[in-house]
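Please check this protein record:
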Amino acid sequence: MADDWIIDFPTLADLQDAWVRRHVRQPDGILRGKPFCWSDWQFWYAAHRWRVREDAEFIPPEEVTVDNPLVLNQAFQYRLTGCIGPQKTGKGPTEASCAILEACGPVVFAGWAKPGDVYRCSDNGCPCGWVYRYNPGEPKGMRHPSPLIQLTANSEDQVRNAYRPLVAMIRLGPLKQLLKVREGFIRILRPGINLDDDDLDLDRIDVVTASATSRLGNPISDAEQDEAGLYTKSNGMLDVADTQRRGAAGMGGRTHFWTNAYDPGENSYAQQQFESASKDVWIFYRNPDLNPDLRHKDGTPYSFNNRRERRKILEWVYAGSPWVPLDSVEAEAEALMEKDPAQAERFFGNRLVQGGGAWLEDGLWESCYADA
């Protein structure tokens, strides 16, 4: 983990990291079917996504009433998180693993651990027998009592970024007992607790696109918004994302977006959230222009047009994704540079650069970092 990635705050990510290794499987490649393990950046993202407020309170289920509700999103530091990363860095499988956690993993704050406390899968509707031993003072987690999750993208092709690995992760391991893949959605089950869940229209993971919005507006516990850098007013996806955020707030849920570096001339949903001044929004983004090791002596950022400097940029933005063959990425980036250099810089260099429009004069965006 990077030297400045110090986790000195309470988070459910330690429990979740172990839970994911136990239950989630690698969706493809030579390691298909093996335990899915978060890399450093994936754990860093999860640690912030499920960062617990130090003053968070837990209402035991037996004490929950209409007037004394279970504490859900208010237990966490952030109501919205995002991930901006380059092509093929692993955003899709990470998103899928997070959706699985939201469906049947420990994502609800369940108090602070005392000596001897453990998490038992059997207490959370999972028959696998797994047990996790908490450290004293560690935040505890439990399953969401009624998860309703939406995987979102502008098109069906885009939503497959997460849906395809999600289905593979389910079918390749023990999650088959908790999640059932149906036509166009995934049923969430609680074996041994609600025996007839599969016959009822209750807990589920749905797909929402610009052309499939029948469930939009429903109260939801979680929304995973894929390629949010393409959500604009013109394609209607800004309204979709805003509606999901309101639907989540009404159910004590939260929303999370995933995207490549966006075009700052399009005023996308990802851009709006990234530029937000809200303190309860956290976004993982490795901006190469803010890395002093990727600047010239005069303070200007490395050029993506320079092969040596481009390689340095790629090595940094893809750090923590060892499955990515950098030579292949560099070849694709160089080929795309001939047709659309701005897109190549966004897709692979993880830079927020303008497209072919006239949002800013060339070089003006980059120059603002020279003295940063």
Notes: The chain has a mean pLDDT of 91. The chain has ten helices and twelve strands.
